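On clarity, I found the account of how folds are encoded harder to follow than it need be. An entry of this sort, consisting of the sequence and the corresponding backbone structure tokens, reads as follows:
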Amino acid sequence: MKRLLAIGLILIVFVAACGKKEVKKTSPDSKLATEAFAVADKIREAYLMNDRAVIERYTTRDGYAGISNARKSFESAELTFNPVLVEIFGDTVHVYISWNGTWHKGVKTIEDRGLADFIMKEKPLKLEEILRENPFSRPE
């Protein structure tokens, strides 16, 4: 009986000690980075679905023109984004994204990959420009 009581007390102390986890608040920079990743992914999905209205909603006027002017025709595509780094400079957010894509046009299949720098501004965030290797300018 004493053993059961001792084991019960040890369990109660253990549960009480482990039950009080400190919850850390999400930093503003972390929230901004999460929002930037979400915007990039929404643009990627809209590009694959050829939904220009959604692309326009998540881009500035210059950003939309950059994607529209660079866009090439294709029948179907797969495009994956892997966020690598986020840099925040005041009201400007640079999201570096490693991408892999496969585009199908007729019997031709084009595969490509690269690293793009998505520059986002405004509140809520909108894509203003893409530097380096624009995934939306494929297939070439």
Summary: The CA atoms of residues 45 and 51 lie 8 Å apart.
